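help with this:

***
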Amino acid sequence: MMISAFGQSENSLKSLLIDLQGYEAETASGSTMNIMGMKMINAGRNYENNDAELSVTIIISSMMANSMAQFGDIELESDEVKEIITTIDGFKTSHTYDKDDDSGSIMVFIAQKEQQSGIFSLLYDGISNNQAMELAKKFDWAKIKTEVENLFE
């Protein structure tokens, strides 16, 4: 796998981690890794608002399987957990929600080229699943896709 501008490309991803109104946010961080030809670029940022906490990450990797993109729509629910795999605004998403804790994760399959893949991830705690999805949609997934694809070689 070749990722162009490897070593500095996390800076372009960090710029996509926007400020969220009403949330205090840490400075975005990023890293690159190359272990025996397995490469990964990531950028992340943490947000807080009263009791709510968010962790947002954009990851480009040759190590992640994107089998989620192969699934059709799925909805599973129990008394404690709800999981939905569906397409939102043209992007395959997986949303897992722990009802008791008001916590969960949203994974958005951004792009794939050969063995390279890009994922947007939002982990949340202290807010409802609907609030988390509203916040996830504030990030411009189409713009993230463009930047991820630009980093594919």
